[in-house]
From TrEMBL:
Belongs to the LysR transcriptional regulatory family. Keywords: DNA-binding, Transcription, Transcription regulation. Transmembrane segments: none annotated. This is DNA-binding transcriptional LysR family regulator. Residues 1-58 form the HTH lysR-type domain. The keyword Transcription applies. The keyword Glycoprotein does not apply. The lineage of its organism: Bacteria, Bacillati, Bacillota, Bacilli, Bacillales. SUPFAM superfamilies: Periplasmic binding protein-like II, Winged helix' DNA-binding domain. GO terms for molecular function: DNA binding.
Length: 310
């Protein structure tokens, strides 16, 4: 078994197509097919079910891919450790991020990191929190910007900071009227309201449901979205209410802007940088965590003041 055969098999499993896999690997398709057949012959099992339009993993193939990913990740960790031992400043770090949260925080962190470590390459992957947890656990990212609680038990984390959570209501809602503005709202008051939440797989959805449960009710979810911007637009359009992290609460100058009200007691979410337990962290990854921890706390305080209720 050759290392390149692991790479080839992983690419076929990812694309589910020999032509696309060969294109990504920059080799001829017949060569790719030949290498896979050679590997299957050596192993004595079929790794893929082949048909005219795509390929699917066999049971043996699924097991092979799980182990192949582990081998590839171990090789990458070894490479990073050797780079660090040789005291090379060049390196790379793969970062995962929740899209909307990252769009508000990373513009502060990435420039500071690149200024301090200009020869370290950073790649950014944006995805849902649930998918990011799985990717990080499997070595698909070195680090991921997430929020507690985590579902993946193989992950550990460093805390970045606390972010307050507000109630978002339509401008015509009784709680949004002048006499009610700036008054804290008990979440239990919203038990009969229609709620708009993020879809399953988003960490903030889990937190919102937990907060409602603690307040004594299960929310009546009338709309769901993958995007917090869409959630805010639907709230502003009068379709329901929602919970919104303060850092990503839409600016008051935007069109279709909800009214944001503080909650009593005031809930918050904990933002973290997560990575796999026991995984070797390169100097580049450690430097990124240190940069995030140094840059973000003061910015988070100011950003939350900016969106606070005047």
């Amino acid at each position: 078994m050759e290392f390149r055969q692991l790479q080839y098999t992983l690419q076929i499993a990812e694309t589910k197509n020999f032509s696309r896999a060969a294109e990504k690997l920059h080799i001829a398709q017949p060569s790719l097919s030949q290498q896979l057949s050679k590997l299957e012959q050596e192993l004595g099992v079929k790794l893929f079910h082949r048909n005219t339009s795509s390929v699917e993993l066999t049971h043996a193939g699924e097991s092979f891919i799980t182990h192949a990913r582990g081998i590839m990740d171990a090789v990458e960790q070894l490479r990073q450790e050797m780079d660090d031992i040789s005291q090379l400043r060049a390196g790379r770090v793969h970062i995962g991020s929740m899209p909307i949260t990252g769009s508000h925080l990373l513009p502060y962190v990435l420039p500071a990191f690149k200024a301090a470590y200009p020869h370290i390459d950073v790649t950014l992957l944006e995805d849902s929190s649930l998918h990011l947890e799985k990717l990080t656990a499997g070595g698909g990212t070195d680090l991921s910007l997430l929020s507690l609680p985590l579902q993946e038990p193989t992950l550990t984390y460093e805390i970045i900071g606390e972010e307050k959570i507000d109630l978002a209501v339509p401008p015509e809602h009784p709680l949004a009227q002048s006499g009610q503005l700036h008054k804290s709202v008990k979440l239990a008051q919203l038990a009969d309201e229609p709620f708009i939440l993020l879809k399953k797989g988003q960490g903030f959805r889990r937190l919102a449901l937990e907060l409602c449960k603690e307040a004594g009710f299960e929310p009546n979810v009338v709309f769901e979205s993958n995007n917090m911007e869409t959630v805010q637009s639907l709230v502003a359009a009068g379709m329901g209410v929602s919970l919104v992290p303060r850092l990503i609460a839409r600016a008051k100058s935007s069109e279709l802007t909800p009214v944001f009200l503080p909650l009593d007691p005031s809930p918050s979410r904990t933002l973290i940088i997560a990575y796999r337990k026991g995984r070797y962290l390169s100097k580049a990854a450690e430097a990124f965590i240190a940069t995030f921890q140094a840059v973000m706390p003061s910015h988070m305080i100011e950003m939350q003041k900016d969106t606070d209720h005047a």
